[in-house]
Design goal:
- This protein has helices at about 20-25, 40-70, 85-90, 100-110, 115-140, 150-165, 200-210, 210-220; strands spanning about 170-175, 180-185, 230, 240-245.
- Helix 2 (about 40-70) packs across helix 5 and helix 4 (about 100-110) runs parallel beside helix 7 (about 200-210).
- A hairpin with a 6-residue loop joins strand 3 (about 230) and strand 4 (about 240-245).
- The longest helix is centred in the first third of the chain and has 33 residues, at about 40-70.
- It is of the alpha+beta class and about 250 residues long.
- The protein has a four-stranded antiparallel sheet, with helices on one face.
- It holds the Pfam family TRAPP.
- It comes from Lentinula detonsa.
- This is TRAPP complex subunit trs33.
Length: about 250
């Protein structure tokens, strides 16, 4: 990034109030370097901790709902509806170059796990907070974006380089508020694997990309765009993010 103007703090020999020196350091903190693999280790531990936390929170909610049903405060929940898929529709599903076995296909198209959805939601929430802070810091010396495409390019270049050390490999749009950002070797899932095979690795990767999706969403929210970000993975380590902006953005 280009050099930016910083608030100069006079030397300690001059009579500068301590609170002004602390305020200047807080406004423009020094850059600290960390190990490049730290984010990978951090995300692994974050997913494991949030998975257990989500499980506890979901069990607590189910127990509370059960007590309210027994007390007659709320009606009992409706029985789950079996998902009957059209065999012709299943045959038309695109799987890219990924060859699914029967076990893998069951894992990929099985019922949605409530605990996993709660985990994805928590990871996305963390990502929104991180992305908004990144966007605010990187845009501090920039003017407002006048075009939506400029904001998307900012995500593809600046945010991507700051978070994942590269730029997006491909950007497509239908010029109606839908943008597709493709990374052919997404750093977050580039070293992800599973002893149960590639279908299981793809299923796990969909959890790990929830935080990057939140980073994109949070960065756009700080720029004034209320976007919907949907990550898609068909063939590791490639990842595609579909960004939908409301009409009139």
């Amino acid at each position: 990034m280009a050099s930016r103007n910083s608030l100069q703090v006079p030397s300690s020999s001059s009579s500068v109030p301590p609170h002004l020196a602390a305020l200047a350091a807080f406004a423009d903190p020094p850059i600290r370097h960390v190990d490049g693999a730290m984010m990978d280790y951090f995300l692994i531990e974050t997913v494991n901790i949030l998975r257990e936390s989500s499980k506890v929170a979901l069990n607590r909610e189910r127990e509370r709902e059960k007590e309210m049903v027994e007390a007659g405060l709320i009606p009992p929940p409706a029985p789950p509806v079996k998902d009957i898929k059209d065999p012709l529709a299943s045959a038309r599903d695109s799987t890219g170059s990924l060859t699914l076995t029967k076990a893998g296909k069951a894992a990929a198209t099985g019922p949605v796990d409530d605990e996993e959805e709660e985990l994805k939601l928590r990871l996305e929430t963390i990502g929104i907070h991180v992305g908004s802070n990144f966007s605010e810091r990187l845009c501090r010396d920039r003017g407002l974006f006048t075009e939506t495409l400029d904001a998307i390019k900012f995500i593809c270049k600046d945010i991507w380089a700051a978070c994942w050390d590269k730029q997006v490999d491909n950007l497509r749009t239908n010029h109606r508020g839908v943008y597709v950002l493709q990374d052919n070797s997404f750093k977050t899932i580039s070293r992800l694997s599973s002893w149960q095979g590639r279908p299981d690795a793809v299923r796990k990767a969909k959890v790990y990309v929830s935080m990057p999706a939140g980073i994109i969403k949070g960065a756009l929210a700080r720029l004034g765009y209320n976007a919907t970000v949907s990550p898609e993975i068909t063939n590791l380590p490639q990842c595609t993010f579909q960004v939908k902006l409301p009409k009139g953005s």
